[in-house]
# Entry
Amino acid sequence: MSRGNSQLGPAPVLLIGAALLVWGWQCQKLPYAILMALLIELSPVSPWRWAITDKEFNTLSDFSGVVFFLSVVYIFSDEGARGIFVILEVLPFILFPLLLVQQYSVTGDMKLSALFVSLRKLDPALSPEAKTRTNITLPYFIICLLAASTGNQRSILFFFMVATLLIYAIFSRRSKRYSIITWLATVALALSIAFATQHGLRSLQASIEASFLGIFDQFMWRYRDPSRATTAIGSLGRLKLSDRIVLRIKTREKLLKPLYLREASYSSFGHGIWNSQQSEFTVIDPARDKVWELNPGQESTGKMHVSTYMTREESVIPVPHGTNVIENVAAIEIAKNQFGAVLMDMREGWVQYDVKYGDAIYADSAPDSNDLSIINYYRKDFEKLAAELNLYSMSDTDKIKTVQDYFHNNFTYSLNPSQRYPRGRYMAKFLFKTKRGHCEYFATATALLLRTVGIPTRYAVGYSIDEYSALEGQYIARARDAHSWTLAHLHGEWTVIDTTPSVWSGQEAENASVFEPVLDLWAWLSYSWSVWQTDDGADEEEENYLIWLLIPLLAVLAWRVYFRERIKNSKQGVQNYQQIKRFGTNSSFYRLVQFLETSYRPRQAGETLGSWLNKLKPIISSDKLRMALTLHYRYRFDPAGLSSAELSKLDLIVHELLENKDLWIRQEDPNESINTAR
Amino acid sequence: MFRRLLYKNLKFLFRVSQWNKHRLTPLGLLIMGGMISSAIFGVDVRQSLAFYIFSICISLLLVASLSLISFQGRFGVKRLLPQYGVANQTFRYRLEISNRTNNNQQDLLIADELQTRLPEYSEFTSSRDPQDKNRNRFDRVIGYPRLLSLIRNKSGGVVETIMLEKLLAKETMQTVMEMTASRRGYVNFSAVKICRADPFGLVRAIRKLGHQSKLLILPKTYEVPVVELKGFRKYQKGGMSQASLVGDSQEFMSLRDYRPGDPIRAIHWRSYAKMGTPVVKEFHDEFFVRQGLILDTFQEETSSLVFEEAVSVAASFCITLPGQDAILDLMFIADKAYRHSSGRGQGRTESLLETLACVEAAPAHSFSKLQTIVHEHSEETSGIICVLLSWDSKRQALIESIIRLGLLVIVFLISDNPKLFTPEPGPLSDQAQRLVVLRSGFIQADLNKLNLSALLEG
# Structure
């Protein structure tokens, strides 16, 4: 009978080492893993022990917590959502100091309060959990497995490795009630189910992805392909873009009208897809350090500071029409195409740059036949509409004005095309029947209608900005502010034509989440942190300042742990880990105790050896026994222990006493004597 | 609304954690933890291989659960409890377990269950936990540790589980259970759970045997000095019947003629023989010290913790009787006015402690009853020790009336309110040393600092 143990206890030998090696192999950190595994697995046989106090465990745990927190912040800001796996991958590193110190500590475990700050101040008399002790080896083992699962070796071998380690971990705790055959059969059954389960999970994800990928795509960051834009024209389902802030603009003056920031423009349209297949990017050589002139020599009338989130290292960036100069950005390379798209090679995450721009759109190439082409499928529809509007007889300026007026006066903005356009000739239905749609309908219809009457046009996509954030003190654009408009070539210049009813922005905003202010605040804080942390002007060495920050913290910890005379070499008289836990428990005197207990009178709980032997005095008399007891007490409780000569002496006395019992045990009825003594 | 929802969630969390605690072994909890973590990290099988870990963990738990169906044991239990337990102390009792089958049983976990009623929302919001001041803001605001503490307090304590390595067929074994009582009053044992783990040692099969018993937990006590109030010895109306054995009761006064009803043992046989008519001995009336102990049960605005401390202080005075020939009268108001006596054959100290173990807070409107009961017995009382929860006008009025009756009084004011740590003595202005403040949580420390001679002066 024993107290029901609610504690995990230590991991079986070699388990942690093996788990660390699997982690090292998976995550390509094998040299570190081998070293860590050796340090842990040598701990049971090493004579070195630290006399670590509970308070020092607290300090060490706090330190690990701080390192973890800094890692989370650093990795998240650097890696984004993927950071969670990076953190998991390095977790064995972060927690290793705590495990190492536990393994080399005299106690071999730590108070639960070392891990949970909230338990530290509690009164153990009122809260039993405050005095609970724990051993972190098994949790660390699970963490190693989880960390290993983030690695690169995507082989089924990992499944078998994990299975072997987990089975080994539970083998030592198995109930002895079951035979080994039963146990192995049960394990085989469990592993068969596990193998089938992992296979099933993979198939399940594949089928889910096939069904729902399109839906998920709506909510994710979208990469703008400068050569192709798939519109939602004719799509089923309600269009809903997120409230996430994707762009921040700082201008000198207040914006009097919406500002268009273009990402790309396209010339050819067919069945819901705009493309610019002739798109060719030309790399721009920087004019000076961090200055790229897109249209050298052109006069700029405005300047703005743009912050945008790049989803790839090389990504199209939004710039205003007429951009002449991009500066103050540590880009690796900037290129532009003939359709005004600017491609920047830098890094993932938030990037900032200044843009100087003029009124005229110089960057875009002159129109060609593609800018006048209309898909035959819709040609008649647009010709019919142009005739209805008498566009053929008007001047170019009037044509544009008429078209703008026509859309403004007769069409409404709608985000819900599913109820309106089941299938088929959606553009014709938009023009003649429903007269409702979103910006892609308006921009496409305008572009094609103007082409019908001989005006070259292009379809532009980007953001329309008119929301000012008082919190941030700058203009912001959300994912839902993504917009499309038309560029018309008029009097030798490209001009922006936006026929989408101006209510569109308000309608989009109506769908905003009620938590938008809170989310905005969080977005602003994380953006600020990200910007502060990735100072593009900083040198490479300065970027790693967080690592340098850890050095003094590590130094303080080292001082606390190492140089306070806490390390004790307890080689004297101590052979292994178990013996160190309780000095002198291997004393040969216990052989005498066992003999006397079994032969005469058992020792009561709490009774000292001295008083017990006194009660046995009627039957034993030996100075040697008293001498042996003195040596045993010293061996057991004297911090200095016994010298090897004294230890041998103790062994010799015990041996002599046990061999010559007749010399010190009286030959009378022991029970009677003891009863008298009582 | 939000707090009510939160409270429901906390209760749910508690039930889940209790289920986990009994159903899963520590290793089982680890595997469950691994399963949940790997489910989170492995939700996308392309991102990580955590789904392998998930598959293995869930399969192990599933097979382990299936193997529990085979637990067919039949058991009998009998609880052998001590007469009392003491709050905040650990004590042991025996549990007799018999295996009624022909199969040997191995590795059984025995858990003795206390009847646990989850607190109502109002109880949860109004409760205070002494540990709260040591907790972080999150724990205080969310209140889960407070809920645990409240449940522990309601159930009355914690019983340690024990592991029974072997129980042979048809054998009965006695095991020693260890319980730490968390409060005074009755604790109700409801059932004994006998649990057996699966082959992997992850999940436990449970056999619950209903077996109800009750145990009275006496209040916690402090080490208090013996306070002998220098009061006058008072005439006791009850005379010998009140105190038959000790004191001045045998003091002879005179002889007189027998009157019907006089006890036979009072007859003076020698005079009877001489005179021929019965003559009886007449004794002095009874005069001895009778000390009152008033426990303030009007909790009102003070916390239940302070009330519990007050009960403990009162219990401490009960077990430290002021001399062999004195009587201690414990007075308090609960559903009605109570006056229990101990000493000089009036009653045992245990019975006072039993009373205090069950005392509950009284409704505020009945405070006047306390004054009435004191006045009723003022004639025979020599001095009074008051254990008060507050020092407001009505309590001061009570003390003033006691002083006016000519009784000696010492007030022990139990408080957790720093404003009351240095109170205005009020009616005790002439003898301010007799107003002693004991800070809740530091009672023993404050009692140790007590200057007894100064207290009893004057």
Q: What stands out?
A: Chain B touches chain A through 67 residues (CB under 8 Å). DSSP finds 13 helices and 19 strands in chain B. Chain B has three domains: 2-218, 250-283, 288-456.
